[in-house]
Design a protein that fits this description.
This protein is mainly alpha-helical. The protein contains 27 helices and six strands.
């Protein structure tokens, strides 16, 4: 009866039945424990779950694999990773479900590198996988741009006798798209026997974030012809792509088509994209008119798009007014304060910069440090701005750096350093940006014909963008760099964004 409740979506009733069984029989067994722990997980009831765990420990019968798996799942899903790992380590036997629960918990706690390592150990032990394993680990590969690991997982899928379902193949496509490998993404899409709306959205989003808006629009038309109706996600992908590609008029037309032709009601995200489309193109008055006349109160994302436009175009008074709105809506979002500080710094208003930075410090907030990572020789290597001093002072680093600088005649654009410091210090800081260190590491530690794939947690700065273009030309390397906004595909001194991002 308890299993019936549990399997049919009645976890509360299953837990009540467990209480009744405890009152009536006292000592219970693994069957009852597994039922109760599943119910606690479904209800997100960690306190009761701990109580059940205590009863498991006190029981005369050793917990079986099902009970241990249920405990790992309970602690993982509630973010208690240390307890989940303790239970996992103490298990006499582990199966695919055990590993899936652990990996899922690591991902939930942002331990993406640890999740990758756990998956490697799992495969090294010959544990195999389930489709749940792959739909958990493929997004991790996407997040850290681990294309080689993603390809290895794809190879395992191809060799499997079981046929992957649409969610697994959609995750595979998403991984390729977010690693900047749209040719592989398209091949995976074309090879699907059964596509759903999510498949089409993944393909369109992939093209859009990689700056391939012609292909994105063609895929959109192909989707319509195939009998699929676009949804809100489809239009967010297209509008965002238009924004970063400078397709202002096309973006405005899409917004109108979304409402009239496809009866998709615009959400705050759609309006934020439209404001961004107009703002980036310096059509500020039109963007403000949109904000003024939208059918609901502007959200943080909408004001954020407008503030970013003020940063791009150096609009100080408007930036101050927009920032004021954001500080009321999102008082703890340090990114808004940093953006206002950058607007002041670009205008040379150093006293205002100091005021904002003092406010950030007073509120106990910290600016996110620039961080880049790449996958080399089965390992994720992470670099922080201004860090990796030992590597940067090595003979090999200096040899490669000197050759690049001599051949390119590069001179740092210190204007991108938004601090009131000397020119020498500015040059030192800009040359220590995390994406440069990552690029240098890749040049030294990978084969000369190998593409370089780097992910950065912040927006790519203007001078780093120029520097990577130079590096791609001098070395003949393809460099794929993904920042918070989009992908930059550098080749022969050119970038796919056409210097508009």
């Amino acid at each position: 009866m308890g299993i019936g409740y549990s399997r049919n979506g009645y976890p509360k009733e299953a837990l009540f039945l467990y209480y009744e069984m405890v009152c009536r029989f006292g000592q219970l067994g693994n069957f009852a424990f597994s039922m109760a722990l599943k119910a606690c997980s479904d209800l997100d009831d960690l306190r009761t779950g701990r109580a059940v765990h205590a009863q498991v420990v006190k029981a005369t019968e050793d917990p079986d694999q099902v009970v241990n798996n249920a405990l790992v799942r309970l602690y993982s899903e509630d973010g208690c990773l240390e307890e989940a790992i303790r239970v996992f380590d103490e298990m006499p036997q582990r199966n695919v479900v055990s590993w899936n629960s652990l990996i899922g918990g690591l991902v939930k706690k942002d331990g993406v590198f640890e999740a990758m390592e756990a998956f490697r150990i799992m495969q090294g032990k010959g544990m195999g996988f389930s489709w749940v394993t792959l739909t958990t680990i493929l997004p991790v590969c996407a997040r850290v741009t681990a294309l080689v690991s993603g390809k290895e997982i794809h190879a395992v899928m191809v060799k499997s006798t079981a046929k992957p379902d649409a969610p697994v193949l959609n995750s595979l496509m998403d991984m390729y798209a977010k690693c900047g490998a749209m040719d592989y993404c398209r091949r995976a899409f074309d090879g699907m026997q059964s596509k759903d709306l999510s498949s089409w959205n993944t393909l369109i989003t992939g093209y859009a974030i990689n700056g391939l808006m012609t292909e994105a629009m063609e895929s959109f038309q192909e989707m319509i012809c195939s009998g699929f109706s676009p949804d809100g996600i489809t239009f967010i992908a297209l509008l965002s792509g238009c924004s970063h590609a400078g397709l202002t008029d096309e973006g405005c037309r899409l917004f109108e088509r979304m409402k009239i032709e496809y009866a998709v009601s615009p959400t705050a995200e759609h309006y934020a994209c439209l404001v961004d489309v107009l703002g980036r193109a310096r059509r500020i008055e039109e963007a403000l008119e949109i904000v003024k006349n939208m059918p609901f109160k502007p959200t943080g994302s909408i004001w954020g798009s407008l503030l970013n436009s003020c940063r791009i175009h150096g609009l100080v008074p408007l930036g101050e007014a927009v920032a004021k709105q954001l500080f009321e809506l999102e008082p703890d979002n340090v990114g808004n304060y940093v953006m206002l500080s950058n607007i002041y710094a670009s205008a040379g208003m150093w006293e205002s910069v100091r005021t904002v930075r003092e406010l950030i410090e007073k509120m106990g907030m910290k600016k996110e440090a620039g961080c880049s990572w790449l996958h080399v020789k089965s390992k994720i290597h992470t670099f922080v701005a201004g860090g990796s001093n030992e590597f940067r002072n090595s003979a090999e680093y200096n040899k490669v750096w000197k050759r690049l600088m001599e051949e390119a005649g590069y001179v740092p654009d210190t204007g991108v350093v938004l601090h009131d410091v000397s020119e020498e210090t500015r040059a030192m800081w800009v040359c220590g940006h995390s994406e440069r260190i990552a690029t240098m590491f890749a040049l030294i530690n990978t084969g000369s014909g190998m593409p370089i794939r780097i992910t950065k947690n912040l927006r790519l700065c203007l001078d780093c963008h120029s520097w990577v273009k130079i590096v791609s030309k001098v070395t003949g390397r393809v460099i794929v760099l993904r920042d918070t906004n989009r992908f930059h595909h550098f080749k022969d001194g050119m970038c796919s964004c056409n210097d508009y991002w």
